[in-house]
Amino acid sequence: MIKRLVVDDIREPRFSAVVARTATEALDMIRKESWDEVWLDHDADFVPGQDYSWTTARIKDLCKRRMAPDVGLFVMHSANTHGRMIMRGHLREHYPVVDIEDYSLDRSLSLWGADRVWDVSVEKGVHHVLPDGKIQTLDEYYKRLRPVRRVSGA
């Protein structure tokens, strides 16, 4: 069985995995144990502390000091493209890193998020199928949670 750690502030894996919610908890777990896969979100809006790029920056520092944690593969499941780029930059020199769209070992893995099922699939990316059959991306969902505020000028 694959030993997975899912790092995410709200979503739950619908597969066998250990979950870390905060950036510091994630770093602690990554340092203390060996992992076949570590799945990384970027934004940590619903927990106190840093986003998860803080964790990957610390891992990069550990690697430079020859104290690299034992991780076989990092899987970026964040919908934040810029955040994934930052984390990938921290890790790619030291580890294999894939975005969820390129994860080919099991196309049926999904994460349970908030009150929705987020299907993490290779074909369609990170999304949720609405009752009317339309697909809502994670970006669209978060935009609804945090609507853009318009400030009227004088």
Structural account:
The radius of gyration is 16 Å and the shape is globular. Helix 1 (23-32) runs parallel beside helix 2 (53-64) and helix 2 runs parallel beside helix 3 (81-91). The chain has a domain at 4-107: Rossmann fold. The strands form 2 sheets. Strands 3-1-4-5-6 form a 5-stranded parallel sheet, covered by helices on one side. The protein has a 5-stranded antiparallel sheet with strand order 2-7-8-9-10. The protein starts with a strand and ends in a 9-residue tail after the last helix. The chain is built from 4 helices and 10 strands. A hairpin with a 3-residue loop joins strand 8 and strand 9 (125-129). Mean pLDDT is 80; it is low at 146-154. 27% of the residues lie in helices and 27% in strands. It has helices spanning 23-32, 53-64, 81-91, 138-145, and strands spanning 4-7, 12-13, 18-20, 35-40, 71-76, 97-99, 110-113, 116-121, 125-129, 135-137. It has 154 residues and is of the alpha/beta class.
Compact description:
With 154 residues, this protein is an alpha/beta fold.
Query: The biggest beta sheet, please?
Result: 5 strands, parallel
Helicity level, as a percent range?
A: 25-40%
End-to-end span in angstroms? Answer: 62 Å
- What's the gyration radius in Å? 16 Å
Say which CATH homologous superfamily of the domain at 4-107 is assigned.
Response regulator
> What is the element string, with H for helices and E for strands?
EEEHEHEHEEEEEH
Decide which structural class fits the backbone: alpha/beta
- Residue share in β-strands: 25-35%
Determine the mean pLDDT. Answer: 80
> How does the overall form come out from the CA principal axes?
globular
Put simply, the count of helices is 4
CATH third-tier fold name of the domain at 4-107: Rossmann fold
Q: Which regions have little confidence, pLDDT < 50, spanning 5+ residues?
A: 146-154
**Strands of the largest sheet, in order across it?**
3-1-4-5-6
Q: What is the CATH-assigned architecture of the domain at 4-107?
A: 3-Layer(aba) Sandwich
DSSP E strands, number: 10
CATH class label of the domain at 4-107: Alpha Beta
